[in-house]
Amino acid sequence: MLLLLTTILSAFAAEYGPPLEGDVMVAESAEPADTGVVGCSDLSLQDGSLLPDLPLFFNRMQPDHAWGTREMVDLIVESSRHMRWLLPDADPIAIGEISARKGGLLYGHKSHRGGVDADIGLYRSGGRQTPHMFERPAPGEFDLEANWMLISTFLDTGKVDMILLDRSHIARLRAYTLRAGLLTEEEADQIFVPEGKDSWGMVGVVRHVAGHEDHLHVRVLCSDGSKASAR
Ligand SMILES: [Zn+2]
C-alpha cells in the first residue's frame, strides 16, 4: 500500500512532469522513445508501433487496430505489467482499438486516428475483465480499488494527456479516493473534472464523455510532452 501511495502521489507532484526518481515505474520503464519526430498528430500515424501480444498482461481485442505511437505502446505495456504486479490475481486487461497501421478514420470512432487514443476495459468486482469485449460493470460491480490503481498507474507514467470515462464512474472513483484517504479534496479536483463540467478543455485529467460506461479512453502525450494536434 505504501508503494501504491508513492505511485499515486508522484502523479500529482508533477502533473505532466517526469516521474519521480526512485519510483517503481521509472525502474520498469523502457528506454525513452526516440522517434525523431517532434510532436504527433491526432489525425494520422507515422512510424507506428504494433502493441505486442502479451496475454499475461492484456488481451488485444482487434490486433489489426492495435497500432499506436511509441508512447502509447509503452504506456499500455508498462501499466499492464505494473497492474499484474499490484494485483496478481486480477484478469489481463482488455485492450480495445487504438488505431489502424497508418492511422486515419477508424469506423465507429471520432478519434483513434493518430495512434494516441486507446480504449481500455474496466475491472468488475474481484478484478475481473472479459477477454475480448467490454462489459459495463453493473451497479455495485465496479471494482473501485482496481480501477483506481489502473488510472493512477496511467497518470504516474507522466505520458497521459487525458482519460475519458462516464460521469457515474468518475463520481464513484472520486468518492472512493476521498473516503479511503488516498487523495485530498484538492488532489481529487486536480484529477477528476467536477460534475457538470464536461468540456475537453477542463483542467482535470479524468473527464466525462458519453459512451464510456463499459471502458475508459486514454489519450497519450507526444514524445516531446506536447499534446497531439492536427497535422
Ligand atoms: Zn475511445
Q: Write the H/E string, N to C.
A: HHEEEHEEHEHHEE
Strands of the biggest beta sheet: in what spatial order? 5-8-6-7
Strand-residue fraction? Answer: 5-15%
Q: Structural class, from helix and strand content?
A: alpha/beta
Helix content: 25-40%
Gross geometry = globular
Unreliable spans are 1-33
Q: What does the radius of gyration come to?
A: 16 Å
The helix tally amounts to 6
Mean pLDDT: 84
Identify every distinct bound molecule in the structure, by name, code or SMILES.
zinc ion
CATH topology description: Muramoyl-pentapeptide Carboxypeptidase, domain 2
The top level CATH class name: Alpha Beta
Q: Please give the number of β-strands.
A: 8
Count of the separate structural domains: 1
Query: What is the CATH architecture assignment?
Result: 2-Layer Sandwich
Largest sheet: 4 strands, mixed
Description:
With 231 residues, the chain is α/β, with parallel strands linked by helices. The chain has a single domain, classed as Muramoyl-pentapeptide Carboxypeptidase, domain 2 (2-Layer Sandwich). The chain is built from 6 helices and 8 strands, in the order ααβββαββαβααββ. It has helices at 2-13, 24-28, 70-86, 144-156, 167-179, 185-191, and strands at residues 49-50, 58-60, 67-68, 93-95, 117-121, 160-165, 206-208, 215-220. The chain has a 4-stranded mixed beta sheet. Strands 1-3 form a two-stranded antiparallel ribbon. Helix 1 (2-13) crosses helix 4 (144-156) and helix 3 packs across helix 4. The longest helix is centred in the middle third of the chain and has 17 residues, at 70-86. Bound molecules: zinc ion. The site of zinc ion (ZN) has 5 residues, from strand 5. The site of zinc ion has 5 residues, from strand 5.
